[in-house]
Amino acid sequence: MLPVYSPEEIKSLNLGLKGRTAIITGATSGIGNCTADYFLSQGANVVMSGRNPKVEEMAREMGGEKAVGVRGDVCDREHREALIRTAEEVFGGADILVNCAGITLLGNAEELSEEDWNKVIEVNLTANFLMAQAFGKYLIDHEIRGCIVNVASQGGVIALKRHAAYCASKGGVIMMTKVLALEWGDYGIRVNAVSPTVVMTAMGHQAWDGPHGEALKKEMPSGRFAEPEEVASVIAYLCSPGASMITGHNLIIDGGYTIK
Question: What are φ and ψ of residue 182, in 5° steps?
Fold first, then answer.
């Protein structure tokens, strides 16, 4: 099994993000929340987006004056605009966007409802594109050399049973990432994606603790699932000066599962 490092060890890396400002969607739970915490540990400012009514309180508790929460749905244009406006008003602007918001609705392909298909595509692909579009326009208009990281999934690279809508949406995120990187490189904007395997967030534990999860881990060279800090640190790295030559890339964080 691959070694597991503590959150403190992972956070000890200095990625040169101090003073930067990141807008993070889906920041009240799971990977998004861990990513917000990681950026704060690196000295960055964070604008946290989420539907949780306690997002403002969560931001204050996590980062004090270096974090602000904005409640809303990334599918809502007014909320997307509010995130950029808040970053300007509170921190003087932003140069990083992390698109973490996403949902999973499972079902056999022959039984998946049109409503569930449309909802997954709307949240995972359309809203993430529109958030990236709004942020990209902001960066271009203000001549800011920034970066965007979209959270995709190993389900965007390989087929997973009962995941037709989810796999389609995440595959779309990966290709969207490449197109945005191609179009916006002239403006000094880098766009990348990460594709995690099962991540041991609260939802990950709920879904994968037990015999089914143990069987899946045996198929992975890592012998284990990912910890949220391992995904957050990769997202932060892709926004760091050390990744200045990386754009249009989909970095798969899967413990080797998709190499077969």
Answer: -65, -45
Assessment of whether the complete model's pTM goes beyond 0.85: yes
Q: How far apart are CA 224 and CA 166, in angstroms?
A: 22
Structural domains in the chain plus CATH codes: 7-254 (3.40.50.720)
**Could you give the CA distance from residue 104 to residue 202 in angstroms, rounded to a whole number?**
15
Q: Which member of 138, 166, 237, 257 is catalytic?
A: 166
Going from the C-alpha of 138 to that of each of 64, 91, 255, the distances in angstroms are: 26, 15, 36
Cβ atoms of residues 173 and 156 within 8 Å: yes
Residue 250 contacts residue 157 (beta carbons within 8 Å): yes
The residues that bridge with 42 in the sheet, in sequence order, are: none
Q: Kindly give, in sequence order, each residue whose CB lies less than 8 Å from that of residue 234, ignoring residues fewer than 6 positions away.
A: 194, 251, 253
pLDDT tens digits, one per residue of 250-259: 999 999 999 9
Q: Is 138 a catalytic residue?
A: no
What one-character-per-residue DSSP string does 196-214 give?
Answer: E-SB-SHHHHHHHSSHHHH
DSSP structure class, residue 225 = P
Q: Which residues contact 35 (CB under 8 A, 6 or more apart)?
A: 24, 27, 98, 100, 231, 232, 235, 236
Model confidence at 97, in pLDDT bands (50, 70, 90)? very high
- Do 117 and 47 touch, CB atoms closer than 8 A? no
